[in-house]
Amino acid sequence: MSAQEISTYAHAELIKKHINNLAADKMKGRGTGSREINRAAKYIEKYFEKYKLKPLGSKGYKQPFIAKVTKVVVKDSLRKANNLIGFLDNNAPYTIIVGAHYDHLGLGKQGSSKDSLPEGKIHNGADDNASGVAGLLELARYFSQNDVKENLNILFIAFSGEELGLLGSKYYVNHPVIPLDKISFMLNMDMIGRYNAERGVGVGGFGTSDKWPSIFEGVETDVKFFTDNAGSGGSDHGSFYAKGIPVLFFHTGDHPDYHKPSDTSEKIDSESEAKIIDFEIRLLLNGMKENKLNFTKVN
Q1: What is the rounded distance in angstroms from the CA atom of residue 127 to the CA atom of residue 19?
Q2: Which one from 36, 45, 138, 162 is the annotated catalytic residue?
Q3: Is 162 among the catalytic positions?
Q4: Over the chain, what is the mean pLDDT?
Q5: What is the 3-state secondary structure (H, E, C) of 51-86?
């Protein structure tokens, strides 16, 4: 099958729209506990509702928790935060989780900035991680509108507090809305908007189930990719791996704008991100042919 004949599912124009909105200056970097991250949450909830996902938070789509800033000393170290949880119910016994984090570094006052003088500067976080949230929303759109009742349910989660130490995903796995033993696997997207054709997109977690090689076999894609066995790492999938759940982690790699105010929307390659999401869709379709993937610990 040639690249031109590969079916396309994701819409680059929608990806661009989501990233432009979430990483706009008016969002002031979506710092955990800020008024602006609550605006970002409303944006995501609007699309969860549009795609008719069932709210599974304790307050609609919201799963509230308290996030603590520990990387720097600030007066407001305890902050109200919310994971956002939407459920596509296929009346199946097992469920997969699709996740991305929607928080970023705000105005550079919560630690982790790579800028030499970060305070007061908007850290837009277009790649990290508006790109992942755009992927989350595109996967929600596709699977809610494809007129197919899949073999598994899908739980879509937008995590908060990731930049403070995976706080949202750590809270979720200790307060799951679906029992963890009913989860087949988890797919996480963090920084998928700066595709480099020489490097390709990295797919972590390949060693977390012995089923992944057969699921990947024969999957057509327009993007170059490579796999890595590790299931831990510095993003939300690590919280699920620690609980014995197979994971996949998509990441297009670090770049000079990482954790800096210069991570802005115009640098995103939405066409390539759409191809990455198409690849994910094909993998998910293969993965959902299995009832539940077995877990393998990676040494």
Answers
A1: 8
A2: 162
A3: yes
A4: 96
A5: CCCEECCCECCEEEEEEECCCCCCCCCEEEEEEEEE
